[in-house]
Amino acid sequence: MRLMKSLTGMLLATAAMVMTANACETTLKSSDTHPDGYPTVEAVEAMGKMIEERTDGRLCVEVYHSAQLGEEKDTIEQTQFGAIDLNRVSLGPFNNIIEETQVPSLPYIFRSVDHMHKVMDGEIGQEILDAFKEHDLVGLAFYDGGSRSFYNSEKPIKSMEDLKGMKFRVMQSDMFVDMVSALGANATPLPYGEVYSSIQTGVIDGAENNWPSYDTSGHYEVAKYYTLDQHLIVPEVLVMSKKSWDKLSAEDQEVVRQAARESVPVMRELWVAQEKKSEDKVRAAGSEIVTDIDKTPFIEAMKPVYEKYVKSDKLKDMVARIQATE
């Protein structure tokens, strides 16, 4: 009797799974370079659950984490073509494509994470999301990317002088190349997945990133010196392919947009917890953290970067409005 009940239960569970799968008329493929369990991955999965519930299972989201669909630069093009439906990408790789994304990517443009939130959650953030329309993408929401700082395998960095001649990986963005050059170091644009082996083999001396990425990538194992200069607080953006978007009804478009917005506080809460966990982990592993650093020379060195990238009146106005945001 117990065996029969067990078999019956298994059959009913299987049937329910099949019915759920069949009810899902459209599965949206979502890409992320970060590993399973990372705050951005978890946030998109939470968004997917909201979408599935609010469409009675007609729309589903399947997240491909750990760069399964490619590195960020490659997935942008796939998303524009509609091969990928949703994509979580740092604003950095968009800098050479969408002019407006250059402003929140500027070094030291934000005074703090709270300042960044106020800007990106407001009118300026919406203007930047709207700019994606002309590039076959729909901007949905901004996630946190933390504050990025330099880490390396050679020595503690306590001043700009210590950076001279060192080789650092940066995202594939001309602005970030110029930022590192302005600090006296040599920039090497590389895909995220190649950083560990490149540090390990001496192709580069280090890279720059936030606490969670420094941890989850394993970079702390090969680059134990981490300097909290916090030169960048670059938001990350969740976008959808316009081709995929246009296939949805107006009602489903609103469901997706609202779910994306509601996933933001989910991501931020997870992010704060992940930052603390990652910091504790790398400190316990023996990383040397430099916190006592005068940022003034670093900020002053960025003047030529601003002059090069903030040329149009539109961008100059956006920079001024960000700096005026309290």
TrEMBL record:
One of its GO terms (biological process) is transmembrane transport. InterPro entries: DctP_fam, TRAP_DctP, TRAP_DctP_sf. It holds the Pfam family DctP. It comes from the Bacteria. The keyword NAD does not apply. Residues 1-23 form the signal peptide. Keywords: Signal. GO terms for molecular function: carbohydrate binding. GO terms for cellular component: outer membrane-bounded periplasmic space. NCBIfam families: dctP (TIGR00787), TRAP_S1 (NF037995). This is C4-dicarboxylate ABC transporter. It comes from Hoeflea olei.
